[in-house]
């Protein structure tokens, strides 16, 4: 039994067949009776983006219909809005938002939905000229790439852009409805920059600019922030900027560091303190983030508090699954909050599997050198592994070196590994000295390795790499003196 047959007891009527040879709509796009809302609900479970009534009613209007073209266009626009809402909701869920939260955001984003509809108008201008409807795949094909582009541009600030679509865009949307012309995103940036550059009627700069200047930012820095995140130009000083500044000062962030935080993550200003920031801080403190270190954490990586709870929990779950003790997860985030920006599926998991494949302890490594998990496997990790393999180190030896010196894969091939290895070959040490002490690659060639080796040779003694490099200058001198005296 088909879904339509199952719904037969409900009241509905089928749209009349179109002209011979005209495209036939699938069944779920033919149900048009207002009394069939339950059916549309039923169908929507099978087809998440479904606006059959609005589309079919307009598509199959006969030439003798008494309805005006204005009414037809009105219903088409209504259907397009619903399609745009469904696409946006789907996109937000794919970005990690819970279904309830995504729906709440979409329902508050009327201005942004109109903006998406205008995108459809310009993308399919010829279709509109012919009076033809758009299919759901066509709508998705037009909107998903645009949303992806916005997501790349604004990152986690996309939600802020969606919810607080700038007021000046309303004028733009009004123009779009008549001209079907969409101003490029770069124009929106120009408008936002103009907003913070144009004096008020009284001749003064906008309040936002004056406050940020007093905070220590210069006008060009403010413009750069707006170029990065145009919505920032429309933030209310008293409701958004000042509360965040007060929180940062309360956490011990020096006032001089606050401009840097805003420049790195202006989206932070748009997040609710009571609903998002403080609950997230409490959660992170409960998993071990040192609350006394918030000043350093936020100065280093203010984006930490802009991630969704789901994103954070996913990362925490992966770390514990990998074998990191739960009490150490917070220590990792305190020392290297950037790890939260790494995707579990695209970065953390594949990188852990790669390190395990060469014999490294991934759980131990991510605690000692979490930054290594943000590296590209093909472009960075494998070439360094190959570097040692080509010099007759075994996979097992490389694994030992990684376990002993976790950042070895983060080092530059040309500026670090190659010149230091070439110099090592001139020192007369056996290769296993590097396996025992891979930290050799962490010392400066010109300021540490060469001077100490030369001094050691001058004294006529021989020390292992660890003794030669890891001790202080005074301790190194004492060791040399003792060896020279035969002690």
UniProtKB/TrEMBL annotation:
Looking up InterPro entries in the UniProt record yields: MTERF, MTERF_sf
Which molecular-function annotation in GO is an example for this chain? nucleic acid binding
Annotated Pfam families: mTERF
Look up the record and give one Gene Ontology term from the biological process aspect: DNA-templated transcription termination
Could you confirm whether the keyword ATP-binding appears in this record?
A: no
Q: Which UniProt keywords apply?
A: Transcription, Transcription regulation, Transcription termination, Transit peptide
Q: Record's family?
A: Belongs to the mTERF family.
Descriptive protein name: Transcription termination factor MTERF5, chloroplastic
- Origin organism of this chain? Oryza brachyantha (malo sina)
